C-alpha cells in the first residue's frame, strides 16, 4: 500500500533529483506561505497524521523498525495503529514539524533546531538514510486531509521543506559522528544510549 509520489526529491544521492550534500534546498516566500496556510488544516488532525505516517513508514520500509526498539518485532499493523507508544512518538514528530513551520520566517532558528535533531539521531542510532522516508509518508498522509486544497505547488513546497530539514539533520548527524570520533567517546558521558526507541 504505497503512495504514488514520484520524485519526492529525497532521492538517493546518485540520482539527478537529489540535492548535493553542499547545496541547501531553497525555500521561497511562496513555499513558506503555502506551508503555513496548509498547516492550519493539518494541525487539526495532528495525532491522526502522526500515527498514519509511522504505520505507513513501517509498512513501506519495514527496515526502519530496526531503529525503534519498541516496534522492532511488531508485525501486526493494527497493533501499531493502537499503540500508545507509537501515538506518542508520532506526536513528537508532528511537534517538530509544527516548530519547523513556526520558524519558517526565522530560518536560522529552524537551522539550529534541525541540526540538533540530527545530532540526537546519531546518539539514537538513526542514520540519515531514513530521514527522507518520513517526508514522503507525511505528504501521503496529509494529501487526503487537504483534499482540493492539495496542489502540485503545495506538494513542491512541502517536499522542499522536508529536503531542507533532512539536509540540516544530515549535517547535525555528521557533526556528532565526527565529534564522537575525535573525542573517542566510548565510556564517556556522550556515549550513545542503549535505547533506540526515541529516534525522531
Task: Please give a structural write-up.
InterPro entries: Globin, Globin-like_OT, Globin-like_sf, Globin/Proto. Residues 178-200 are annotated as: Disordered. Residues 189-200 have a biased composition (Basic and acidic residues). This is Globin domain-containing protein. Monomer. Homodimers and homotetramers. Mainly monomeric but also detected as part of homodimers and homotetramers. The radius of gyration is 17 Å and the shape is globular. Helix content is 59%, strand content 0%. The longest helix is centred in the C-terminal third of the chain and has 32 residues, at 152-183. With 200 residues, the protein is mainly α. The model is unreliable at 4-20, 186-191 and 194-198 (pLDDT under 50). The chain is built from 7 helices and no strands. It has one domain (29-184): Globin-like, CATH 1.10.490. It has helices spanning 29-42, 46-60, 77-81, 84-102, 107-123, 131-146, 152-183.
Gist?
By secondary structure, this protein is an all-alpha fold. It has a single domain, classed as Globins (Globin-like, Orthogonal Bundle).
Amino acid at each position: 500500500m504505497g503512495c504514488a509520489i514520484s520524485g519526492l526529491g529525497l532521492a538517493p544521492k546518485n540520482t539527478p533529483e537529489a540535492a548535493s550534500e553542499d547545496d541547501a534546498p531553497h525555500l521561497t516566500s511562496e513555499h513558506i506561505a503555502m506551508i503555513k496556510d496548509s498547516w492550519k488544516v493539518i494541525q487539526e488532525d495532528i495525532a491522526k497524521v502522526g500515527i498514519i505516517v509511522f504505520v505507513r513508514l513501517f509498512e513501506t520500509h519495514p527496515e526502519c523498525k530496526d531503529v525503534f526498539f519498541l516496534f522492532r518485532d511488531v508485525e501486526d499493523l493494527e497493533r501499531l495503529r493502537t499503540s500508545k507508544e507509537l501515538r506518542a512518538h508520532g506526536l513528537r514528530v508532528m511537534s517538530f514539524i509544527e516548530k519547523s513551520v513556526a520558524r519558517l520566517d526565522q530560518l536560522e532558528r529552524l537551522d539550529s533546531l534541525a541540526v540538533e535533531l540530527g545530532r540526537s539521531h546519531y546518539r539514537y542510532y538513526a542514520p540519515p538514510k531514513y530521514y527522507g522516508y518520513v517526508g514522503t509518508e507525511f505528504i501521503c498522509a496529509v494529501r487526503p486531509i487537504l483534499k482540493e486544497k492539495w496542489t502540485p505547488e503545495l506538494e513542491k513546497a512541502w517536499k522542499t521543506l522536508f529536503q531542507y530539514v533532512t539536509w540540516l539533520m544530515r549535517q547535525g548527524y555528521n557533526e556528532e559522528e565526527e565529534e564522537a570520533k575525535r573525542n573517542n567517546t566510548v565510556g564517556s558521558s556522550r556515549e550513545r544510549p542503549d535505547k533506540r526507541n526515541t529516534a525522531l
